[in-house]
Design brief:
This protein is of the alpha+beta class. It has a domain at 442-553 and 627-642: Up-down Bundle (Methane Monooxygenase Hydroxylase, Chain G, domain 1). 47% of the residues lie in helices and 12% in strands. It contains 25 helices and 16 strands. A hairpin with a 7-residue loop joins strand 13 and strand 14 (540-545). The radius of gyration is 27 Å and the shape is globular. The structure holds adenosine-5'-triphosphate. Keywords: Actin-binding, ATP-binding, Cell projection, Cytoplasm, Cytoskeleton, Motor protein, Myosin, Nucleotide-binding, Repeat. One of its GO terms (molecular function) is ATP binding.
Length: 673
């Protein structure tokens, strides 16, 4: 230690006499860095030393890492760290913007900054998310690089808490700023976020405002002005309504309601407090009541502005309160072949009242299944566990449909008055990052499949298409090899791939999770990315993804894939006296990914279509499984994005911890690689 201290003092002395008048080091600072590293000084020790921070500043002086003569993971790490410690969170690598989440307010998003980036060229100002937004907008107009006007898209990726949603909001805000407008439509677009966050975001151990769904926002333009917008949502985590892991919370809306509803609303909607409900009582909560009250007020304002009527807002609160009440319904063990009894009659009555249905009908749906086969009625009485599952299924299906209805309603409001062929768009994708937990289920498989698609899309644009362009223009370059994940996409999507086999087993009456895994083992064991697992209590299989090895536990996959709503429940809700419930169960809510914004007859990018697009929107005649719907919506998304010029923003989290903003070398390296 002493030896190190002496060395450090000597180096500091040497350093202080070796930087020039402009504050730049006269030597290659890497030598100094390497030297320090060899001496075992931690990077943070060095950063907190005010003298040595000069050295760091010099290391991070390049704001486009592509300009460095040698670039490897370690060098990226050193550069990003030096910049981060200097509060320079944005760095380019070629056209890609890297954003390291500062986890504190840097005061870099004010009006002044927005204006500074408005007219500047990309290379004229330091890297910033506003610069990327302005660049993308100008590319769309065709004023940057003298290219033709063309639609653009921005893919924002990164793990949970890395800053994707904040970046999305900043991009949208800056683009609206660039349009010079303050129209009602633009204000509505800005208000969409508080609305979506209330219903689709929740606190997790990683992020206090974590988006529990993926979204693609398409801003539509005519003559440089916003004329409409469209939002597509992907895979809302409905299970959070009925269950949250330790340290997590339910969707924000419930906290907003508990804190923000007036006494009159509480009475009307029979609303208790957080501790009174099974679905919310164990939720972790960090903010105080005033915070949630303000959020509730903001939400109401956003709903007014976006155009939700008073009746719709009341119906919405009634349904949400009903979801909480139905969760409190308990069941007594059944006696022989009798039906299970309901032990919380008041909660059942309250839920039925709020859902606008008869208590006896609701009880029927929760305690037994009635099937009609060839004119014969078969009644299956539920066990206590089955009744509890049915209760939770009601809560999930209602919440899921409510969310889709909200997105649909927003889309109706924001859709352009008229479509014209010279409309252009900027799409912004804020989607869940790759996931690998201690236990991974069907949801993780879908999320990781989405990330494989995006990785393929990224590879296509960054490596494959770029090299094709060099070739066609006769530019000399040394071939860059990259790992092509097409085989993995095939493993999931081809005719006898994982999703097809899951569908096959889901349609087979005797199918089980175990028989599904048997089928996978039989058909896919020879695939390079498929890893058969030893027999265990929960059947499992593993996949070698581009981002790592993931083991999947197959529990309730067939059920999750089928996502069936019992006919009796469906017909009860279709006849509800609550207009909103009637609408969402009767109406034909456009499902995610079936959007068909016919992209303006612009010349399309020469991109190879990564995956053949689905030929048509899913037909309503046969209910598609969740896996197939998700596959279709991903393919539709990729098709939409392939028509535009892509830009990439990669968000990085400095540290695994939720609150700390320190830069952890190992952690960031794992994200960079
Ligand atoms: N540019 C920024 N400046 C300051 N703080 C930021 C910035 N970006 C993100 N944060 C902070 O980090 C938190 C997490 O960011 P965000 O919700 O955008 O992450 P995410 O990648 O969208 O996560 P998830 O996938 O869980 O939704 C924010 O609530 C905010 O506190």
């Amino acid at each position: 230690m002493r030896f190190n201290a002496i060395l450090l003092t000597t180096m500091q002395y040497w350093y202080n006499h070796n930087y020039n008048a402009k504050g730049k080091l006269n030597h290659n600072s890497n030598i100094l860095l390497t030297f320090y590293k060899l001496q075992g000084f931690s990077c943070s020790n060095m950063a907190h030393n005010p003298r040595l921070s000069y050295c760091w500043r010099d290391v991070g002086a390049t704001d486009n890492l592509a300009e460095l003569s040698k670039l490897d993971e370690n060098r990226i790490l050193i550069e990003l760290k030096a910049r981060y410690l200097n509060d320079e969170i944005y760095t380019y690598v070629g056209d890609i913007l890297i954003a390291v989440n500062p986890l504190k307010d840097l005061h870099i998003y004010g009006k002044k900054t927005a204006l500074a980036y408005k007219n500047a060229k990309l290379s004229e100002q330091p890297p910033h998310i506003y610069a990327t937004a302005s660049h993308v907008y100008k590319c769309m107009l065709g004023v940057e690089y003298d290219a033709d006007p063309h639609s653009q898209c921005i893919v924002i990726s990164g793990e949970s808490g890395a800053g994707k949603t904040e970046s999305t909001k900043l991009v949208v805000k800056q683009i609206i700023e660039l349009c010079n407008g303050n129209t009602q439509l633009e204000q509505q677009i800005l208000q969409v976020n508080p609305l979506l966050e209330a219903f689709g975001n929740a606190k997790t151990v990683i992020n206090e405002n974590s988006s529990r769904f993926g979204k693609y926002i398409q801003l539509l333009f005519h003559s440089g002005k916003v004329v409409g917008a469209k939002i597509s949502e992907y895979l809302l985590e409905k299970s959070r309504v009925v269950h949250q892991n330790a340290g997590d919370a339910n969707f924000h809306i419930f906290n907003y309601m508990f804190a923000g509803c007036s006494e009159e609303q509480r009475q009307t909607f029979k609303l208790g407090s957080r501790e009174n409900y099974r679905y919310t009582k164990s939720c972790d909560q960090t903010a105080d009541a005033t915070f949630y009250q303000n959020k509730f007020e903001q939400l109401q304002n956003a709903m007014d502005l976006v155009g939700f009527s008073e009746e719709e807002q009341d119906d919405l609160l009634a349904v949400l309160s009903g979801v909480l009440s139905v969760g409190n319904v308990d069941f007594a063990d059944k006696v022989s072949s009798e039906r299970v009894g309901v032990s919380q009659v008041d909660d059942l009555a309250a839920a039925a009242h709020l859902f606008g249905v008869k208590p006896t009908d609701l009880q029927e749906c929760l305690t037994r299944l009635t099937n009609s086969t060839r004119g014969e009625q078969i009644i299956i009485n539920f066990s206590r566990t089955q009744a509890e599952d049915a209760r939770d299924a009601v809560a999930k299906v209602i919440y899921g449909r409510l969310f889709s209805w909200i997105v649909n309603k927003i889309n109706q409001r924001l859709s352009p008055d008229q479509r014209s062929i010279d409309q252009l768009e900027i799409g912004i994708l804020d989607i869940f990052g790759f996931e690998n937990f201690a236990s991974n289920s069907f949801e993780q498989a879908c999320i990781n499949l989405a990330n494989e698609h995006l990785q393929y899309f990224f590879n296509e644009h960054i490596f494959s298409l770029e090299q094709e362009e060099y070739k066609s223009e006769g530019i000399k370059w040394s071939h860059i090899s990259y790992s092509d994940n097409q085989p993995l996409l095939d493993l999931f999507l081809k005719k006898m791939g994982i999703l097809a086999l899951l569908d096959e087993e889901s349609h087979f009456p005797q199918g089980t999770d175990a028989s599904f895994v048997d089928k996978l083992n039989k058909n896919l064991s020879s695939h390079e990315c498929y890893k058969k697992q030893r027999a265990a209590r929960t059947p499992r299989f593993a996949i070698q993804h581009y981002a790592g090895h993931v083991t999947y536990d197959v529990k309730n996959w067939l059920e999750k894939n089928r996502d069936t709503i019992p006919p009796s429940l469906m017909s009860m809700l279709k006849q509800s006296s609550n207009l909103l419930l009637r609408t969402i169960f009767k109406g034909n809510i456009t499902r995610t990914g079936t959007l068909a914004l016919q992209n303006r007859t612009r010349k399309s990018v020469t991109a190879k279509q990564p995956i053949r697009p689905s030929t048509s929107a899913p037909s309503n005649s046969k209910k598609l499984t969740v896996g197939t719907q998700f596959k279709n919506s991903l393919q539709e998304l990729i098709r939409q994005m392939s028509k535009a010029n892509p830009h990439f923003i990669r968000c990085l989290k400095p540290n695994a911890s939720r609150l700390a903003g320190e830069f952890d070398d190992k952690y960031i390296l794992s994200q960079v690689s």
